[in-house]
Each structure stands twice: as C-alpha cells, then as structure tokens.
Amino acid sequence: MNNTNASGEKFTKQQPSIGGVGFHLWFDTANLQMDQQAKSILERLSRSKYSGIILYPDNLKKYQHLVNGHLQKIISIKNRNELVDLINNDQIRPSDESSGQCIIITNNEDLLDFEDKGKMKFCFKAFVKDAESLNEAIEKGMKFDYLSILFDDPTNIPLELVIARLQPTNTILMKEIKDINDVEDAIVSLGVMEVGADGIIFSPTSHEVYDSFIKELDELIAAHVCIQVGTITRSKPIGMGYRGCIDLAAIFNPDEGILVGSTSQGGLLCCPEVFHLPYMELRPFRVNAGGIHSYVFHVDHTDYLSELKAGSSVMVVNAAGKVKKYPVGRIKTEIRPLRLIEAAFEGGEIVNVILQDDWHVRIYSDKVTPLNITELKPGDKVLGYVTEPGRHVGIKVDEHIIEK
Among residues 268, 278, 253, which one has the least CA distance to residue 386? Predict the structure, then answer.
C-alpha cells in the first residue's frame, strides 16, 4: 500500500487516543434550522472538543461567521463546478493560515483529479446498507484522506470490518452517527475493537443531548488515575473470612488489574489470572479481589465489593494509569483464609488490602510483574493508588474521617 494521502503527501497514520489529541469530532450542519437554538449550538462548538464542522454551499454564509478558527471547515461538495464556483467567489480557500487545508467531503471520485487538490484534503462520503456497498466504500475510501461512513443498520460489525481493512492505510475513518440523539452510539463508536474509529460525526440539535454527549466524552477522556509505587510494610495471615472474585465480561492484558483497598485512602493494583499457574488453567477474565468489605476504586467513586453483581461496571486500570470500564459477569464469594497486606507510599499514606491467603493470588510489582502475596516481605515495591480518605455511599466527601 502506497503511504500517501489524496494530496500526495507521505505521512504516518495516527491512531486515535482517548485522553490524547488523536481523535476527530465533526458536526454536520445538515439538520440545523437557523434559529436561536441552532446559533447557540454552533457557538458552543467553538468552545468544545469538536474539531470540525461540515458546511454546505447553501449555508456557508449563514454559519461560517459563528465558527472560530480552531474548527476545521469541511465543505460538502457534489461536483467539480460547485467547488470551482465557491473558490472563484472566495467563499472557500483551498488553504489558509487559520485552519490549514480545506477538507472537501463528497461521494464524487472525480474530484480527486481537481487541479488544486494538493492544497486540499478529501473525504469520501459513503452509505453502507449491505456487503456490496461496504466493500465499495472501503475500496473507494482508500483513495481519499478520509472516509466517512453512515451505516444503515444498528450494528458495529461492519465498522469492525472497515477498521481492520483500513489499519494498514493512511485513510482516516469517520463514522457518522445515524441518530442525532444517540449519545451511546457516539461514545461506543470511539472504542470499537479498542482501536475505534479515528473519529465520529455526531450532530445533536438539542442542548440536552449535546450536554449529555460532552459529559460522557469528558468522562472518557479523563479516564486516568495516578498509579504510584508503594513499599510493603506488613504482610500476615489473619484467619478465615469471605472473599470475592470479580469475573468480568472482558479479557485482561498482562499490565492491567483492579484497584482494591480496605479503606478509602487507596488500594493496590491486583493482578488478574493472566500469568502462568502450575495447577490450574488461566482465567484471564478474573481478579481474586479480596475481602468482601473491600473498596473497588473508580475514577470518581468507589463500590463495595459486596455491592457488585452481574451487569455492574468496574474500572480496569493499567500500570500507566490508563482506565477502561468493563461489565461484571459474576461475583464469586466463598470463605477462604485471608491475608492482610499493607503498603506505605511516598506521601506517607498507608494503604492496606485483604486478599485470599494463597500463593496463586498476586499483586503487581513496580516492574509490572506479578508478586505472589504469600511471598511478600517488607521492602518489596508494589503498584497502587492513593487518594484523600472520606467516602459516603462511595462518593468523596469533605469531612474528617479516620479509617483503621
């Protein structure tokens, strides 16, 4: 595959990074009515995480004065004459200092032969309703800088196929969200197959839906916690008690785990069963998460392990602090011998966790390797998370609370 875009430039395709700057978010003005609400929606775009706005020859004059310089203008064009007229009338510029190269979105392949194409980027607009139209969209889209796809059916299977086919290319994939009120589809589409679409076109026309989308997007982007190195100060058996295993409808990577602690001060990063065990098959969906009283940490709240059940959401975090959310498939609670593990952190915080007292239960070392808890000794370095203590129904509260 020739690693050039439609403009003839060589470049390396950047995968989207939720929490970084890699994903594209466009707003399509096709469904807007020019009223006060539409005006206020457009004004909000310029202050939000939207990176581009799709405009049309018949609304350019009405809308473009409401859009500030950080939004990329994407102009929808039907044919060559329409593009030439807009350029000749100085309604669009192929390239300028404020927004860089103009993006032309079209379903017309002939525009790729436009004489000034080196000053523009091009997006192929496709509608997919079956396997034939899907393959056609991919084949044509590979010739363009961007491929925008609107799927007729409410399934992400076709999106997964497009992502897989486009990964070795430099074409940037944009999924158009069919329902302008479907916030869930917009958020999910950024995470399909973990890679996700490079971007989405989502165009809510009500402030209520807009607010809901931005809130969920903010939560997705902010999904990061500060993982720190702690030092083991104590490890001892404490007798029998109830412990719970968290089985997720997911597969852990070998640097991921769940943060568990006995107090709201923080927790240790508990290993899933993804590392070799001599006496049993791996269970890469499971974390032996400890005493049933334990806190299971999220970005903004905690759950008691005893509260979790099938369908609950749990935060999975890797050694770098990157966060994902996965559904619980099962909580498995049994009476087992328990062990108290305590660690001190740089700021003086003391964190403890109570886990099943067995060699096959593990927590992560500072080298992101599994440590069998029965072999822990004072001075061992482990990964964990500390925060200010004080929780009420799992939510941080500003009051003096002592937990021991």
Answer: 268
Q: CB neighbours of 119 closer than 8 A, spacing ≥ 6? A: 7, 94, 95, 101, 102
SS3 (DSSP) at 88: helix
pTM: 0.63
The Cα 296–Cα 324 span in angstroms is 14
* pLDDT tens readout for residues 257-308: 999 999 988 999 999 999 988 878 899 999 999 999 999 998 778 999 999 9
C-alpha span between 309 and 247 (Å, rounded)? 10
Of the candidates 9, 7, 14, the residue with the CA atom closest to the CA atom of residue 199: 14
Measure the CA–CA gap between 135 and 90, rounded to whole angstroms. Answer: 37
Q: Are 285 and 249 in contact (CB under 8 A)?
A: yes
The answer to whether the CB of 361 falls within 8 A of the CB of 245 is: no
Is residue 101 within 8 Å of residue 119, measured between CB atoms? yes
The pLDDT tens digits of the residues spanning 21-57 come to 358 899 999 988 767 777 888 888 877 888 899 999 9
Q: Which of 365, 350, 358 is nearest to 404 (CA)?
A: 350
Residue 158: phi and psi, rounded to 5, are: -60, -35
Q: Hunting for tokens 């929808």 — which residue is that?
A: 76
Query: What would the two tokens of residue 133 be?
Result: 């139209």
Tell me which amino acid residue 25 is.
L
Cα 76 from Cα 43, distance rounded (Å) = 20
CB 263 within 8 A of CB 291: no
